Amino acid sequence: MNNRLAIRKCTDYDKDDIYDKIREIYDATGGPDVRNKKVLVKPNILTDDDPAKCISTHPSVVEAMVLFLQSRGATVLVGDSPAVHTAKFNGEKSGIRQVCIRTGAEWVDFTNKPVEKKIGGRKTRIAAVVDEADLIVSLPKFKNHELVYFTGAIKNTLGLVPGFHKAKQHALHQERNKFGEFLVDLNEIVTPGYFLMDAITGMEGPGPGRGIPVSIGLLIGSTNPLALDMTASRIAGYDPLIVPTSRTALFRRNWLNSEDDIIYDDGPELSSILKEDFTRIPVSTFNNIAWQFLMKRIKFLRKSERRPVFIHERCTGCHKCIKICPVNAIEVRPAYKNHIILTDSKCIRCFCCSEVCTDDAIEVRRKLFGV
Ligand code: SF4
Ligand code: SF4
Questions:
Q1: What CATH number did the domain enclosing 37 receive?
Q2: What is the rounded distance in angstroms from the CA atom of residue 246 to the CA atom of residue 154?
Q3: d(Cα 281, Cα 303) in Å, to the nearest integer?
Q4: What is the DSSP letter of 289?
Q5: Which residues form the domain of 93?
Q6: Residues 356 and 310 in one domain
Q7: Which end of the chain is more exposed for a tag (fewer CB within 10 A), N or C?
Q8: Same structural domain for residues 251 and 361?
Q9: Residue nearest to ligand 2 atom 2, measured at CA
Q10: Number of folded domains in the chain?
Q11: In a domain, 121, yes or no
C-alpha cells in the first residue's frame, strides 16, 4: 500500500472510456501486479436494483475493471452481499450478473459456508472467498450514508460480512462512532488491495438507498482506503474528520499519519472538482459517544434526533424492514399488512430499515418537527 491517489474526469458510463481511465489510474497509483492471481472484485450492491437509481456501483465500472484485471493476467471473481441476501440474489437487476456472463468472471455467493474471523476481539462471519482470493479489488460508490455520513472504501468492505450478519454488527456497535470503529477493525483484518470509486454519478441527499443521483464526473483510485475516503468526502463537501471511519483510521495512524501525506499529483486540480452544492447528511451536533449515550436516555434530546418515519401509504407490506431490524424495534400493526409501527425507545438509529426498503416508504427525519 502507498499514499498515492489518482483521479480522472469521466462524465458517462462508456465502458471503453472507463477501461482506459482505470488503466491510467491503476498504473499511476501503483496498483498491485495481478498476473496469475485470483482477484475478487467487490462492487457495492446495496440492493439489487436498476443502475439508474445509483444505489450500487454501475455495471459498466464493474465490467471495465474485470476486463482490465483479466488483461493483466488475473482470474476474476465477482461478488457482494446486500443486507437482505435471498437465495436468489445474483445481481440480475443491478446488471452485475450480465457482467459475469459477458466476461466469464465467476459469481461468488458470500453466504455459502462463511468463515469466522476475530474482528475487534469478536468472532464475525466473513465470506469464505476472502481466504481463497489472492487480492480483493473494492469498487465503492460516491454517496451519502445516514449513519456514517459518507460511504466509501472503508465502508464498502462491510459487504464481505454476509447478509443479515451485517445487521447483527449494528446491534453490537450501536453508536455511530462505535460502528465506525468496527468498520476500521474489519479493514485491518480483511484489507482489499485496491480501491476504485465510481463517482461518475453519485448520490446526494438521503443515502445510501433513497438519495438523488447527481453527476460528479469522476473516477478515483488508490491502494489506500483512507486516502480515497478523505479525498472523496472532501469533494462532497464534508470535513473528512466528521466521517467516523476516516476519523478512527486517522486517529489510529492506520493508513496515513495526516491528510497531508496523501500524494495527489495525477488528476485535475482538487479545488476545481469540489462539489460545494452537494446535498449532505446533516451532521449531528451530538457526535461523540458521551452525547449519544445521553441522547438515548433524555426524551427531549432523543426527539431531536433523525429517526425512521414509516409512510404507510407507500408501504407494500414486504416486511424486509422488520426482518433486518437488529433490535426488533419495528412490527406490523395487528390486522394490517402495511402499517409498520416503531417502538422508538428500542430503535438504535442504525437505518438498516431505510436501506432495505425499496418502496421509499421509510424516510429519515426528526420527530420534533415531523409526524
Ligand atoms: S416500510 Fe418498506 S420495507 Fe417495510 S414493509 Fe413497508 S415497503 Fe417493506
Ligand atoms: S427501526 Fe430501523 S433504524 Fe431503528 S433499529 Fe430498527 S432497523 Fe435500525
A1: 3.40.50.11440
A2: 8
A3: 18
A4: H
A5: 4-272
A6: yes
A7: C
A8: no
A9: 353
A10: 2
A11: yes
